[in-house]
Amino acid sequence: MLYDKGIDVVIVVFRGTSPFDASDWNTDFDLSWYELPSINCKVHGGFMKALGLQKKRRWPKNIQHNNHSDNNKPSRLVAYYTIREKLKTILGTSSSTKYILTGHSLGGALAILFPMVLLLHEETLLMERLEGVYTFGQPRVGDEKLCEFMEEKLSLYGVKYFRFVYGYDIVTRLPYDDKAYLFKHFGTCVYHNSFYQGQIVKEEPDKNYSWLTWQIPKIINAVWELIRSFIIRFWKGSDYAEGWLLMFCRLFGLMIPGMADHALQDYVNAIRLSSSSLLQFSQPLPNTSRLKSKARFDCKENVL
């Protein structure tokens, strides 16, 4: 959590999947449904557990914060509750303070599900102060009923929700949107191609990552991205130089196009290099340079 008192905005960042954390991978591949009878919808069970779903699969409005590890850091079992209370404390000191939710990959899924639980708990104040949700490389989180519920409520509270997708990022196309899995995306999709040119689209190209129909364009794109790894420092400047690990991922992407597109660096590049007019559909995001210089950093790794 970062709080910039200069612009009076709190930014809550949810961390994505840690490459060497088995519990994170278990979360991603847990495709069980968690049903919410109150709004007649289904949500990705793994993401619900990562956010703080309690035992016996329920969301009580309040819990005893006694699920702490030996080092006194809150565990992921109380993530939602801990973040909610911290936000209440900060927002309670000022009537004008707003907050933003964001995250990459798994973190993006948690960022959009956080306000869903706030709505279940009728946390009106927190919903009124929520400025927007910005996710990057986010997978699908629920069925069509959840999409309808969230779009209605976010619109009611005037909350902006933008889902950034880069290239053929495979994660943004999972779990599948078909008759078997029933997962759907919602919100405004901001799509960037491999030249970091952005546009607002209804749905990202090849929404279900078809191996046959889109195979040739994906391979051609993966070849270009590998070449781009070597020339981007000369093309866009030394700030955009890529390391050998990312170049190796680009090489691996020739075999499974779309895997390397999930890299966080491509999303950072897309935001930095895309046309400034693209973001005029929304109110300007906080000045990141000011955030770097003025923000107070308060991160609980096991929670976020």
Order of strands, widest sheet: 9-8-7-6-5-2-1-10
Share of helix among residues? 25-40%
Order of helices and strands: EEHEEHHEHHEHEEEHHHHE
Give the distance, in angstroms, between the N- and C-terminal Cα atoms. 8 Å
The tally of strands reads 10
- Largest sheet data: 8 strands, mixed
What does the model show?
This protein has 304 residues and is of the alpha/beta class. Helices cover 36% and strands 16% of the residues. Strands 9-8-7-6-5-2-1-10 form an 8-stranded mixed β-sheet, with helices on both faces. The chain has a two-stranded antiparallel sheet with strand order 3-4. Strand 6 (130-136), helix 6 and strand 7 form a beta-alpha-beta unit. Helix 1 (22-29) packs across helix 2. It is globular and about 50 Å long.
In short:
By secondary structure, the protein is an alpha/beta fold. It has helices spanning 22-29, 45-51, 79-91, 106-120, 124-129, 144-156, 215-235, 244-252, 264-273, 288-294, and strands at 2-4, 9-14, 33-36, 41-44, 98-104, 130-136, 160-166, 188-192, 198-201, 296-297. α1 (22-29) crosses α2 (45-51), α2 (45-51) crosses α4 and α7 (215-235) packs antiparallel against α8 (244-252).
List keywords for this structure.
304 residues, alpha/beta, 8-stranded mixed beta sheet, two-stranded antiparallel ribbon, 10 strands, 36% helix, globular, disordered C terminus, Fungal lipase-type domain-containing protein, Fungal_lipase-type, OBL-like, triacylglycerol lipase activity
